[in-house]
Design brief:
The chain is about 40% helix and about 20% strand. By secondary structure, it is α+β, with helices and mostly antiparallel strands. The protein has two domains: about 120 residues, Roll (Endonuclease I-creI); about 120 residues, Homing endonucleases (Endonuclease I-creI), CATH 3.10.28.10.
Length: about 250
């Protein structure tokens, strides 16, 4: 779940300190409404710190914890990032750590694609994404970052996932396979891909995925959004055939 969330709403940054050294951090910055989500991540991982700046809260994991805890954990379990930008950031960070580069001036210049060999390759087909052992829980985390459960003013219910298109075509086509839909992915001229479903059949699959599949549950604001969405379905005859979660344990 965590890697999917970082793919959608986190980043790994390398910056220069006042002494010319490299500061390496994985950062997730969210609205203060999602402080409980960051506190949950912090409690599970047991590393990093949470800072608040006005209405923004940040979960920050520094170089030592990345090198000694998080990255070894990902490598051991063969879990990796699936979005283009995060993969480049992760690969460069691994290169820096593996070569013990400490001075910012010693950072390599040029295209970071040359370091992608340090991490597993992306699946080359949509189907191959779906058989990644961590993919379904990755979708849960990605949904918490980039997904939406919403109701249009006309009463139409939707579930959607959105991200920049570059390098993500097969990933978004994999969503169609996971949710078993014939609905096409929308690719905008502004460089975004959007997966969105609204039929009773498709929303039945969505509810089954998030509430009846034994995956990591949604957490934070996205769980609140999901519960509100589910509660709306309870009073809508159109969705009477969907097996909704118990009202006492939505999500």
């Amino acid at each position: 779940m965590f890697v999917g969330f970082v793919d959608g709403d986190g980043y790994i940054k390398l910056t220069r300190t006042v002494t010319g050294h490299i500061s390496m951090e994985l950062v997730i910055a969210l609205n203060v409404r999602d402080l409980p989500l960051l506190q949950y991540m912090h409690s599970v991982l047991g590393i990093g710190r949470i800072n608040q700046f006005g209405n923004t809260v940040k979960y920050i994991i520094g170089r030592v914890d990345l090198q000694e805890v998080l990255f070894p954990l990902l490598l051991h379990h063969n879990i990796f990032f699936l979005t283009h930008t995060r993969r480049l950031q992760y690969a460069l960070a691994l290169h820096v750590l593996m070569n013990n580069i400490v001075l910012f001036g010693d950072l390599p210049t040029g295209n970071n694609n040359q370091y992608l060999g340090l991490i597993p390759s992306l699946p080359n087909t949509a189907m191959n994404f779906t058989v990644l052992p961590f993919f379904f829980n990755w979708i849960v985390g990605f949904t918490m970052a980039e997904g939406s459960f919403y109701i249009k003013s006309v009463g139409e219910y939707f579930f959607s996932l959105r991200q920049r298109t570059f390098g993500h075509t097969e990933l978004f086509e994999a969503f169609r396979l996971v949710f078993n839909t014939q609905t096409s992915v929308e690719y905008s001229t502004r460089g975004y891909a959007k997966f969105a479903v609204s039929s009773v059949k498709d929303l039945t699959t969505v509810v089954t995925f998030f509430s009846h599949s034994g995956l990591h549950p949604l957490v934070g604001h996205k769980l609140e959004q999901y519960n509100k969405w589910i509660n709306g379905m309870r009073s809508t005859k159109r969705f009477s055939s969907i097996k909704l979660p118990d009202s006492s344990s939505d999500g």
